[in-house]
Specification:
alpha+beta, Bactericidal permeability-increasing protein, domain 1, 2 domains, seven-stranded mixed beta sheet, 8 helices, rod-shaped
Length: about 450
């Protein structure tokens, strides 16, 4: 009888003993290797040419003169006076016009004979003029300058005379001679000197120094608040054909960058300007960035949904008193569930986090009891080894990621709009954020995302 009583007591004690499996050993796998995306950054550069054009205007002579004398035929002397240069800008070139006026003196000898004095006209010379003792004859001159950038980061300018119109022709009726073409020929020689001077002034702009400053700034880390630091890692550079408007030359600079985000600052070895590549019109900016959601925050959401829930397991009821994320084991998330009721204790479960990229939710796949928990249940409470527990946790362990992604998109856009230094400002806009994958760290789940948008730099 005593033996039977002892067995009964032991049975009661076993039935009342709480379920307390050993907590699983936690292990964290290394995070996925960074695989930076090569992105393109559009940098519109504007350079004010007012100063250079003013130097062009002041450095050029305002008066040209010349002459050609010969015994036989027509001899002439001319004077050309230019007005201030009227600089205008066309899309593909710098265009400017010069108003001018000239006077011309001519004399004509039909036949010369050679004597000791070097030759003289056989008849009295005939003299004539245009613009002498009367208003000078008007001229309109037009130039165009095309500008390119050579492999040494320097402007390369080519100025050509595009227009030469003598508005008041000079026709000498005394000896039936049209001097217009001769004037044009002679004055043009002088005006072509203007081409070289303008080229010299434009090519004197130190573009390389300006771009070197940009290149240096782009290699510095950009703080992204809670995300750490973004490194653009510029790789390549290409320039568009310059365009002109409102006293400025505009150039689109395409940068190939390989951006990454790091939680800590990195030691960066500065690189020098790369060899220029062929320009191709591009747009866009892509960035791979990790967004963290702590286990504490996810546990709070999960516990709010599951705490107090009554589960009927084959006629026996248990009440969930606590459910949270306890850590990670390799690529699986560990759940810890405390309960009371027909039995009291703790269960450990594991699940593989997955992302539904369409619904933008995080959910659990392959949810199961931990091995140690399985062993304890099979020995003491098989009825707890139930799919009902698994299905309830799986149903509630679904986390909306859209709000987190949208907050991150806005925050990163704001932080990408900043001043890199006094002369260089950056404006970033993130349009799209997409989830690529997830991985687990020691105290948080990390969502690796790809952000697409626009990034521009402006220089003063």
């Amino acid at each position: 009888m005593r033996l039977l009583f002892s067995v009964f007591v032991l049975f009661l004690l076993a039935a009342c003993k709480p379920i307390e499996p050993l907590a699983p050993n936690q292990r964290v796998l290394e995070k996925p290797i960074d695989n930076p995306i090569i992105s393109n950054v559009s940098i519109p550069i504007e350079i004010d040419l007012k100063k250079q054009l003013k130097q062009v205007e002041s450095s050029l002579p305002k008066t040209f003169d010349g002459k050609e004398e010969q015994c036989e035929g027509i001899s002439f002397a001319y004077k050309f006076v230019r007005e201030p240069i009227d600089f205008t800008f066309k899309t593909s070139e710098l265009y400017y016009e010069v108003d001018g006026k000239f006077e011309l003196k001519l004399n004509y000898c039909p036949k010369c004979h050679e004597l000791w004095d070097g030759g003289s006209c056989t008849v009295p010379r005939v003299y004539a003029s245009c613009g002498v003792g009367e208003p000078m004859r008007r001229v309109k001159v037009g130039y165009a300058t095309s500008v390119d950038i050579n492999n040494n980061y320097k402007f390369q300018a080519k100025t050509e005379l595009k227009k030469f119109e003598i508005l008041d022709p000079c026709k000498i009726t005394v000896f039936n001679y049209d001097a217009t073409s001769e004037v044009k020929k002679q004055v043009k020689k002088q005006l072509e000197k203007l081409e070289d001077e303008i080229d010299k002034q434009i090519e004197g702009v130190d573009l390389k120094a300006m771009i070197a400053d940009v290149w240096k700034e782009l290699q510095k880390p950009i703080a992204l608040d809670t995300y750490g630091f973004m490194y653009l890692f510029p790789k390549s550079m290409a320039f568009s054909q310059p365009t002109f408007s409102k006293d400025k030359v505009s150039i689109n600079l395409n940068l190939g960058v390989s951006p990454i985000v790091s939680t800590n600052t990195r030691e960066i070895k500065e690189t020098s300007l790369p060899k220029l590549e062929e320009y191709k019109k591009k747009k866009g900016f892509d960035l791979s960035i990790d967004i963290k959601a702590s286990y504490d925050s996810l546990s709070s959401i999960l516990n709010k949904q599951m705490k107090g829930k009554v589960l009927d397991l084959k006629g026996k009821k248990i009440i969930v008193t606590q459910l949270g994320i306890d850590g990670t084991q390799d690529n699986k998330m560990l759940f810890k569930m405390s309960f009371e009721g027909a039995k009291k204790g703790t269960l450990y479960l594991t699940g593989v986090p997955q992302i539904d990229t369409v619904k933008q939710v995080l959910f659990m796949d392959q949810l199961d009891f931990d091995l140690e928990t399985k062993s304890v249940l099979l020995k003491s409470a098989k009825w707890l080894f139930s799919d009902r527990i698994l299905s309830e946790i799986k149903k509630n362990a679904v986390f909306e990621m859209a709000p987190l992604l949208e907050d991150s998109r806005k925050m990163i856009s704001e932080q990408l709009s900043t001043n890199l230094n006094e002369d260089i400002s950056m404006k970033g806009t993130i349009d799209v954020i997409k989830i690529q994958t997830v991985y687990l760290s020691e105290r948080s789940i990390v969502v690796r995302t790809q952000l697409s948008g626009d990034l521009k730099l402006k220089m003063k």
